[in-house]
Amino acid sequence: MGLTALCPGTFDPVTNGHLDIIGRTSATFGAVVVGVLENPSKQPVFGLEERVSMLEEACADLPNVSVRPFSGLLVEFAKEQGATSIVKGLRAVSDYEYEIQMAQMNLRLGAVETLFMPTNPKWSFLSSSLVKEVASFGGDVEGLVPDHVRKRLLDRLEAGA
């Protein structure tokens, strides 16, 4: 079957930039696990199950991709999933500065390699935080997130999150 990669994140919400990295990873690895982090220090707009569900729908056309929730250490989750590599997207140098520190810690803790994939320039400006901010002020986020995610985000914001 080939090597398994892990694409971790909070995905609150999943963006087309995330999906670009997941899709490109799925074309490179035999299997991809998208790990959806439950982080008690963050207050996400969407609960863990909702984020998993939105990702499952967004990745439905990628047969070698599975979506699973996790909490705790990323390297422990990677081992549980049989992942040989963690794949992270990088938008800018500022992402690299943070991610290299995490990659080195993950290598030390669990001997799991991290591979960096540059974001497609089309999505280099895009983040979940920016999408939420723009949508909260009534801005148009069509084309930045899958349609089903956009609808759920707008519904959530209208309901007062």
Describe the structure.
With 161 residues, the chain is α/β, with parallel strands linked by helices. 44% of the residues lie in helices and 19% in strands. The chain contains 6 helices and 5 strands, in the order βαβαβαβαβαα. It has helices at 16-28, 48-58, 74-81, 93-110, 128-136, 147-158; strands at 4-9, 31-37, 65-70, 85-90, 113-118. A 5-stranded parallel sheet has the order 3-2-1-4-5, sandwiched between helices. β4, α4 and β5 (113-118) form a beta-alpha-beta unit. α3 crosses α4 (93-110). The longest helix has 18 residues, at 93-110.
Q: In brief, what are we looking at here?
A:
With 161 residues, the chain is α/β, with parallel strands linked by helices.
Given as residue ranges, the uncertain stretches (5+ residues, pLDDT < 50) are none
Shape designation: globular
Q: Approximately how much beta-strand content do the residues carry?
A: 15-25%
Separate helix tally: 6
Helix content: 40-55%
Nearest-angstrom radius of gyration?
15 Å
Key features of this structure:
5 strands, 19% strand
How do the helices and strands line up, and which of them pair or pack?
Elements: E1 4-9, H1 16-28, E2 31-37, H2 48-58, E3 65-70, H3 74-81, E4 85-90, H4 93-110, E5 113-118, H5 128-136, H6 147-158
Parallel strand pairs: 1-2, 1-4, 2-3, 4-5
